[in-house]
Specification:
- There is one protein chain.
- This protein is of the alpha/beta class.
- Helices cover 36% and strands 24% of the residues.
- It is built from 10 helices and 12 strands.
- The strands form 2 sheets. Strands 1, 4, 5, 6, 7, 8, 9, 10, 11 and 12 form a 10-stranded mixed sheet that branches. It has a two-stranded antiparallel ribbon with strand order 2-3.
- Helix 3 packs across helix 9.
- The longest helix has 17 residues.
- The chain starts with 5 loop residues before the first helix and ends in a 27-residue tail after the last helix.
- The N terminus is likely disordered.
């Protein structure tokens, strides 16, 4: 076999090295060039993004956020429906520019994509019977708490050093509290609020512990290395916060006058400054 001469090797080496290195992403330039933001949203997850029965168009909080972000970027928006299971893959393969799909920060996701500054903080909360409403998270150390199996709710129970009692669905985990198979039920804040309100209407008094079990910052997802886009998205979110636009969108879909009756307590803030224990 003929040996590669030194001059030929010196020409080939830079090419081989460049092929091995990841390409530097400049999605912001691509967005500006095409005049369109490809925004990944849920296909059918109300109130975040689902088909409106009257218009047959996607509508929801995440849809409004996509539109607002596109306006900040000075481009049109192209909504691209994604499933819960495929949303990360759709982003990492470049089929969408950004992902706005109730995307909470976790360690495993952060290893694959980068997150903007969060525009709200989702919470894993503990639903208890009214007699236990004044207790703290620490009071439930070693106690049986129910949740859906394999969920972030189950992770938060373990973080609190309590004993998870898990079920395949939310209804069964909630029933465990009612049947005294657990002393509390852990789920996301939105679901908890709905269940407590429905129970009250049926004459059953439940409460949500004031101290959350875990924090889950919800943000815009982008490909790793997209530093220009990250800076622009963070700047846009800060402006939308300052103008009150995010509050308006929140109140339209999740606020006190909706069935969810949720109050937005946390504002846009740097992810690096947020003190929380990330879930897996």
């Amino acid at each position: 076999m003929r040996k590669i001469t030194t001059p030929l090797l010196s020409l080939c080496l830079p090419l081989m090295l460049s092929a091995a290195l990841p390409a530097s992403a400049d999605t912001l330039a691509d967005i500006s060039s095409r005049g369109q933001l490809n925004c990944g949203v849920y296909a059918d997850v109300p109130p975040f993004s689902s088909s409106d029965v009257k218009t047959r168009q996607l509508a929801g909080m995440d849809v409004d956020l996509c539109n607002a972000l596109a306006q900040q970027l000075g481009v049109k928006v192209n909504l691209m429906p994604v499933s819960v299971e495929a949303r990360i893959a759709v982003l990492t393969t470049g089929r969408v520019d950004v992902l706005i799909a109730n995307l909470a920060y976790t360690k495993s996701r952060a290893a694959q994509i980068q997150f903007s500054d969060p525009y709200y903080i989702a919470k894993e909360v503990l639903v208890v019977k009214e007699a236990n409403a004044a207790k703290t998270r620490a009071d439930f150390k070693g106690k049986r708490l129910s949740s859906t199996k394999g969920s972030t709710s189950e992770q938060s129970i373990r973080l609190a050093q309590a004993k998870p009692v898990t079920f395949q669905d939310t209804a069964s985990a909630y029933l465990a509290l009612q049947q005294n198979k657990s002393v509390g039920f852990v789920t996301n804040g939105m679901t908890a609020t709905q269940l407590v309100n429905r129970a009250k209407a049926d004459g059953v008094n439940l409460a949500i512990l004031k101290e959350p079990m875990a924090l889950e910052p919800v943000a815009v997802g982008m490909q790793k290395g997209d530093e220009a886009l990250l800076a622009k998205v963070n700047d846009s979110l800060a402006k939308m916060e300052q103008s009150g636009e995010i509050d308006t969108i929140w109140n339209r879909w999740l606020g006190p006058d909706t069935e969810y009756k949720m109050v937005r307590e946390d504002k846009v803030q740097p992810l690096s400054q947020l003190k929380f224990e990330a879930l897996e």
